[in-house]
Design a protein that fits this description.
- There is one protein chain.
- The protein has 165 residues and is an alpha+beta fold.
- It has a single domain (41-159), classed as Arc Repressor Mutant, subunit A, CATH 1.10.10.10.
- It is built from 6 helices and 7 strands, in the order ββαββαβααββαα.
- The protein has helices spanning 13-34, 48-59, 65-72, 76-88, 110-134, 139-159, and strands spanning 3-5, 8-10, 38-39, 45-46, 63-64, 92-97, 100-108.
- The strands form 3 sheets. A 3-stranded antiparallel beta sheet has the order 5-7-6. A two-stranded antiparallel sheet has the order 1-2. The protein has a two-stranded antiparallel sheet with strand order 3-4.
- Helix 2 crosses helix 4, helix 2 packs across helix 5 (110-134) and helix 3 crosses helix 4 (76-88).
- The longest helix is centred in the C-terminal third of the chain and has 25 residues, at 110-134.
- The two termini are 30 Å apart.
Length: 165
Amino acid sequence: MWRTIKGERMVSQSDLQKLSRVWIRVLNKVDADEKCPMDFGSGDLLHCSEIHTIMAIGKNPDINVTHLSRQLGISKSAISQKIGKLAKKGLVEKHRDPDNDKEILLRLSPRGTIAFLGHEQFHAKIYARLHQKLGDLTDDEFALILRFLLAVEETYNYESGKGPG
């Protein structure tokens, strides 16, 4: 059954199911990629969650564990474990806040910085390919894509019991 608003056809349930099938294929590919660690130039094979932790620290030098866990959307205990592993690999350094001796701050080591920059290059290639495929987006097109992705995230959070977006 088609609905129309202002003379335009609105998507049907089967249209949404088609979107869902494509989205699930993308998720399956991302899931497979996350299981295959990559070297971003530092000589370390890094899983997706590790390089994204490195990226967050690299973009926010001297971030603390609490802010990092909020930014990445994972628990403080989970981020603490990740930081421990990355520090053991020599990619992340911990140091005390000079203004608050109880606060531990995080920064990248030189090897962590190499991985950070390598991942930035990796993303630059992906963005270039997306731009090649999509071309220039209007503000309205971009807003629609963003609205869709936020709706998917909010639906996932609700259905997984993680509460609203």
